[in-house]
């Protein structure tokens, strides 16, 4: 696993683990197993040991599932654009490892000897489990970042007008964003395997190739000014020089580099 994939995996796992819904579900599932005591645990263990056993088993299973499917999906993100296929492959990669870990825990804790039959049963259950978590991870990673770095600043009447226009315009990319972040686009950029989408309401990381994000801009008016940057026309304040580099200054103060290949088009469009 490369450093970039590892970094992206850790960040995405962190986002998933911050989900309150995830932890609420975890607690409910553990309690159900503690109360019902499957695999003979209700007869062999007291309440405290049963709670510890099922907590450890589910913690191992859930964390392993989330980590493996996240890493696999990130590795496949630039090779496979079809979401459902990536989710299925991620689940298929995670299930055998989870099943082996659970068999090992069952053997070491309650003395149940592993066998091909028991492993096969675990594998089938873990595959379903991994598919559910693959979908959960894919949805949770789209949780937005709070725009605390000044991205949501007073943009002036031009942006207010643009917001009304964007509510009528068809921009498929907007539908990928949380409802509270949907609004006029300001800027798109690449960060690791993600596309960072900035609107007037904040930022959101999308596990989406930059080229695919650009293809979903629809009626949004703007320009790709660098292989890693797209800017909306209404967000541009000026075109400035910083030494030998040409930069676009957005109305929120952010500066975006302009590549040499895009310089001519940027000058025609934005130079005052």
Oligomer: single chain
The pLDDT mean sits at: 81
Largest sheet: 6 strands, antiparallel
Tell me the overall shape.
elongated
Pfam families: LytTR (PF04397)
Transmembrane segments: 21-39, 51-72, 84-110, 116-136
Domain HTH LytTR-type: 192-272
Keywords: Membrane, Transmembrane, Transmembrane helix
Task: Give descriptors for this structure.
alpha+beta, 2 domains, 272 residues, single chain, three-stranded antiparallel sheet, 9 strands
List the helices and strands and how they pair.
Elements: H1 3-17, H2 20-36, H3 41-44, H4 47-76, H5 83-110, H6 116-140, E1 144-145, H7 157-168, E2 185-191, E3 194-199, E4 202-206, H8 210-215, E5 222-226, E6 229-232, E7 236-242, E8 245-250, E9 255-258, H9 260-270
Antiparallel strand pairs: 1-4, 2-3, 2-6, 3-4, 5-6, 7-8, 8-9
Could you please describe the fold and organization of this structure?
The protein is an alpha+beta fold. It folds into two domains: 3-140, no CATH class; 145-270, LytTr DNA-binding domain (OB fold (Dihydrolipoamide Acetyltransferase, E2P), Beta Barrel), CATH 2.40.50. The chain is 54% helix and 17% strand. The protein has nine helices and nine strands. The chain has helices spanning 3-17, 20-36, 41-44, 47-76, 83-110, 116-140, 157-168, 210-215, 260-270, and strands at residues 144-145, 185-191, 194-199, 202-206, 222-226, 229-232, 236-242, 245-250, 255-258. It has a six-stranded antiparallel beta sheet. Strands 7-8-9 form a three-stranded antiparallel beta sheet. A hairpin with a 4-residue loop joins strand 8 (245-250) and strand 9. Helix 4 runs antiparallel to helix 5 and helix 4 crosses helix 6. The chain is elongated and about 80 Å long. The model is unreliable at 142-168 (pLDDT under 50).
């Amino acid at each position: 696993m490369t450093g970039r994939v590892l970094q992206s995996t850790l960040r995405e796992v962190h986002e998933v683990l911050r989900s309150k819904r995830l932890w609420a579900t975890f607690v409910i599932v553990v309690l159900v197993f503690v109360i019902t005591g499957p695999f003979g645990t209700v007869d062999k263990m007291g309440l405290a040991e049963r709670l510890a056993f099922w907590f450890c088993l589910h913690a191992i299973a859930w964390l392993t599932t989330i980590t493996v499917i996240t890493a696999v999906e990130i590795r496949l993100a630039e090779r496979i654009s079809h979401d459902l296929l990536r989710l299925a492959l991620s689940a298929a990669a995670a299930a055998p490892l989870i099943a082996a870990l659970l068999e090992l825990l069952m053997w070491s804790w309650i003395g149940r000897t592993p066998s091909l039959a028991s492993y096969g049963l675990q594998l089938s259950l873990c595959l379903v489990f991994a598919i559910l978590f693959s979908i959960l991870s894919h949805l949770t990673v789209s949780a937005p970042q709070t725009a605390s770095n000044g991205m949501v600043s007073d943009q002036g009447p031009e942006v207010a007008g643009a917001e009304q226009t964007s509510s009528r315009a068809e921009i498929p990319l907007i539908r990928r964003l949380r409802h509270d972040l949907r609004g006029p686009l300001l800027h798109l950029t690449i960060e690791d395997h993600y596309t960072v989408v900035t609107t007037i309401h904040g930022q959101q990381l999308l596990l989406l190739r930059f080229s695919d994000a650009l293809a979903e801009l629809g009626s949004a008016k703007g320009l790709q000014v660098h292989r890693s940057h797209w800017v909306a026309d209404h967000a541009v304040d000026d075109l400035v020089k910083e030494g030998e580099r040409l930069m676009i200054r957005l109305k929120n103060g952010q500066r975006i580099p302009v590549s040499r290949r895009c310089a001519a088009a940027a000058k025609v469009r934005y130079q005052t």
